[in-house]
Amino acid sequence: MSDPAVRVRDLVKTFEVTQKAPGLAGALKGLFRSETSTLRAVDRVSFDLARGEMVGYIGPNGAGKSTTIKMLTGILTPTSGEVTCLGFVPWRDRRAYARSIGVVFGQRTQLWWDIAVVESFQLLREIYGVSGADYERRMKVFDELLEIGRLLSQPVRKLSLGERMRCDLAASLLHEPPLLFLDEPTIGLDVVAKANVRAFLKEANRRLSTTVVLTTHDLDDIEELCERVVLIDHGQVLWDGSLRGLRDKHLPEARIRFDLPAPADGDPAELAVGPWRAARLSPGRYLLAVDKREASAPDVIREVVRSLPVLDLAVSEPDIEEVVARIYRENAALRRPDAPPASEGAAAGIVAHRGVRRG
């Protein structure tokens, strides 16, 4: 087995935070004596990324995602722990390492603001030492996948957000790096622009076997692009595995929605279907949520169809956003002083999956 593209072991990053008292008196006091506290932004994070893998690195605001990415790209030096990316230690080998990675931050651009896009590309070509033939070949691919040809003569400041993001993605892959970091690459984009970006990333991963680390709050990005997700909260890994496994562990429901003929005397608020109860959504429409650990969806569907005059029926699973929101709530409850022990309730599953794939 080849070495992983990214290897992270017990990564820790702490910051000293100055505590300021409110009001004028507090400001004056701070001039002579300041109090500080230690914030642990990343807390013993460990994982491996295989070469060519596309992984979603997700969590709520303040979870430690961006801090982790900044250490993996060499912008920050960790307090402790080990990181190797493509055989480099990012903060120690920054000059050589920078030639092997691409980075896109959704709120920032690597293109020069007041010059034409093509001039930025040509400058990057010189910086990365891309040959003329390779440059022309890659620009044709970028135009084919991202339709940037018509944008090349325009100054970056005149591009829309979606147009600039497409150009930034092309710029990040101009030197065909084996490792790409994407921080909120679809933030603020419309539906069409998001679809274009996702299609491009899929194709780049397929054609170049690029290893991709994707952080985003848009979980549709994760579902479209990533088979594996690393979920982090308060600096700690809560889950490392498949999206399917995440859903099955924390919200293993099948949701059966069915329509019935409207009775003359009105719908009941609930219907008994064998041992299950279906809740009314609207006149004639009901929803039955089944725990898949207790019964299979096909068995329940058969019972619904056998016992009721069903006109229409559909089966779905919880959205991944709902699953992740539930995990955040459970972890927040677990951290409260009055929370039950970790062995109680669904939150226990979170603790049990910290550090999966470590070692």
Can you give keywords for this protein?
Rossmann fold, alpha/beta, globular, 6-stranded mixed sheet, 14 strands, 3 domains, single chain
Beta strand %:
25-35%
Q: Mean pLDDT score, rounded?
A: 85
Care to count the β-strands? 14
Secondary-structure element series: EHEEHEHEHHHEHEHEEHEEEEHEHH
For the termini, the CA-CA separation is 15 Å
CATH architectural name of the largest domain = 3-Layer(aba) Sandwich
What integer value in Å does the Rg equal?
25 Å
CATH class of the largest domain: Alpha Beta
Q: What's the number of helices?
A: 12
Q: CATH-wise, what's the superfamily of the largest domain?
A: P-loop containing nucleotide triphosphate hydrolases
Low-confidence region ranges: 340-359
Biggest pleated-sheet summary: 6 strands, mixed
Overall spatial form: globular
The helicity comes to 25-40%
| Total domain units | 3
Strand order of the largest sheet: 5-6-7-3-8-9
Quaternary assembly: single chain
Enter the CATH topology name of the largest domain. Rossmann fold
How is this structure best summarized?
The protein is built from 12 helices and 14 strands.
Characterise this structure.
The protein has a six-stranded mixed sheet, with helices on both faces. It is built from twelve helices and 14 strands. It starts with 5 loop residues before the first strand and ends in a 7-residue tail after the last helix. It has 359 residues and is α/β, with parallel strands linked by helices. The protein folds into three domains: 6-245, 3-Layer(aba) Sandwich (Rossmann fold); 252-316, no CATH class; 320-352, no CATH class. It has helices spanning 23-32, 65-72, 94-98, 117-128, 132-146, 161-172, 191-208, 219-225, 243-250, 297-307, 320-335, 348-352, and strands spanning 6-19, 35-49, 54-58, 80-85, 101-105, 179-183, 211-215, 228-233, 236-242, 253-259, 270-273, 276-282, 285-291, 312-316.
